[in-house]
Amino acid sequence: MNYSRIAIIALGAAMTASLVAAPVDEKLVIDGELEMTTRAPSSDGHPLPEVISGWHYRTESTRALEADTFENPGMLGIEQGEEIWNTVEGSEGKSCASCHQDAADSMAGLGAIYPKWHEASGKPINIELQINACRVNNMGAEAYKFDKSGQKPLTAYIKHQSLGEPVKVNLEEGDMQAWWERGKEMYYKRTGQLNLSCASCHEKNNGKYIRADHLSQGNVNGFPTYRLKQGNLISLHNRFRGCIRDTRAEYPAAFSDDLMALEVYTTWRGQGLSVETPAVRQ
What we know:
Number of domains: 2
Oligomer: single chain
């Protein structure tokens, strides 16, 4: 019996039979003060006419959580990140604050422009990898292992300093354009027993329901994101790997060249949307 073919047929039938639900026509305003850009014109060459934040595709109760700082469960991670920012570690007796002082000033806008080109390694670098570089080279501390220790909350804390800033990727730096091309190839590459790509759900079927969830465009402007399903902050590469796993394929290592290229491309797809970290999703 061809289980792969049966699974594909079942998935297609579920998508076809499911109701299409348009994203809600509302505005996300944090604490009644900071209005977020959650719909924006697409960049030149984008396959969709408009980019829409995943916030629009969530339930009313989930949307309300993100709009209220005191109710947003992801803010606990931000508080943890602030504590880590000020904690001395490593042989050099330094904390993040030792070099960068007040994150509200030194990190403002930074989360909106990563990933960016890293000349020393000849590759794009994201905030997690920049943190590790600082820990090793400046603090004399060990690099964080993927999703371990303070990596997620510190990343979230740094990105939170750019809350509301529009996402923008500079493809003119270094060889970023080539990495964008590689990421695009990854985005459309079908994998696993289910023979699905990122585009299968987030481009061709966004707005539909699958497995009781409402498919969004898959924009990444809210990561690290608090997912109610896991009850925790979830990193972008964790989500990449989770999606690939759900196609019943082997997933690449976090921060591998494949996933870094995919981060470049998916971040570009959501250009113009506000940084929402920590976004709240189901």
